[in-house]
Amino acid sequence: MTRIAVCAPSTPITREDAQTVVALAAAEFPNLELVFHEQCFAIEGHFAGSDQLRLDALVDCANDPTFDAVWFARGGYGACRIAEPAIARFGHLAGEKAYLGYSDAGYLLGALYRERVGRPIHAPMPGDIRRPGGTAAVRRTLAFLAGDTSGMEPSLGVETHPVVAFNLMTLAMMCGTRVMPGLAGHVIMVEEVSEYLYAVDRLFFHLTAHLGGVAGLRLGRVSDVPENDRPFGADAAEIARYWCERHAIAFLGEADIGHDAENRIVPFG
Amino acid sequence: MTRIAVCAPSTPITREDAQTVVALAAAEFPNLELVFHEQCFAIEGHFAGSDQLRLDALVDCANDPTFDAVWFARGGYGACRIAEPAIARFGHLAGEKAYLGYSDAGYLLGALYRERVGRPIHAPMPGDIRRPGGTAAVRRTLAFLAGDTSGMEPSLGVETHPVVAFNLMTLAMMCGTRVMPGLAGHVIMVEEVSEYLYAVDRLFFHLTAHLGGVAGLRLGRVSDVPENDRPFGADAAEIARYWCERHAIAFLGEADIGHDAENRIVPFG
Question: Which residue ranges does the record assign to the LD-carboxypeptidase C-terminal domain (chains A, B) (predicted)?
Fold first, then answer.
């Protein structure tokens, strides 16, 4: 039996969504046990409870010897406020767990990777159950936790470098902070959602200035781009290629990740 | 006679707006001569012409011995793509000029300040003529260029530290890049427009991690905050105070700057 603790370092999910995910796991993955921490349903302003509540729940889950993995409930925003103090309270048992999520949870994945704590994994989250086709996304992470690696990002099969995957905004905001991992020699996958292309260009201006020594960059999907008052003049792949070229970073093409039901799994490292 | 070159390192303005500003200067400031570079009206996708066109126009204006100041036409996005290569082509005469603008033009002000080239000045731009009350904003910069310093940000009168002023997003994106000035010992003023409060919080998470050794931070106006699906739970001043406290940065209160007609003038240094 693999036991998985779910907590919400960013924003809350509903009890209904949690029940749907628990039911899916029970029906299809008898060797998985999902336990949603009560904090997942807390609401305080933007967040799933105060910084202290979210921090305590994350530390509880990470340090609990009866769990094998910690799954982040959903993104939204907020994990950057608690990542550093939370990991400072992680004990020895926290280092033996897998940590799964993406989007805003990337602050935690990155901070864990920096500190060499546990196994950070870019993967769909329980909150994805609300997306069109979201059941397939959630099932992909559950299957991975049950030992089925077929949901992994396809380029990983032939990649010889260590790999990380992040939301573009999340990784850009981590640059130069105390949660930014060293990424020299790595392939960096980034995806984005709901940003104007000029903002994507601006984020690449910033991010690529911080990626000295990386092995290369792959671009996931840049989806739900809002309509601007005029066309930007380049698409997301052209933007990524332009900034990679300015910083002599190898642009390696597409990555099969994104804020969508097709989002594939990328274990860090 | 003070001669002022106007170019557009980011996005274009209209000929009508340029004519309105020229007429205002002619009517009220007989000792100023405004010359709009033809590049101000170029359009290529998002930008006021290609990177090369914008870069060449900026270098033309900066190196022209007949001008005393370079005024950036408006913000929008794009100056970060040309700031570094432009300044590399600036000659001796460029170092004797004032450079005026704000918002996206902050990439240039910051890069100039980093390289100790000329006098960077946060100030309203010709494009502000379109704002409600925009004539007063444009007049403030013209009066400053004509020698009237009454439009300067009020705290400057008693401030003993060097000061800079930036759009929050712009300064956050500069952090760690080759256009970021050293700001140790400085008072940093930041303002923001049209960002969700969670995004303002995220920008402060990032920015304050890069402000080691500054003398303090002042918050300008955070305006046109979009309505989110739920309240954030803290206002912009509380957000700024929180992140300053986490990084032991002195929070010094308000600054009279913003994306509005009241935006005051802040000469860097």
Answer: 166-269
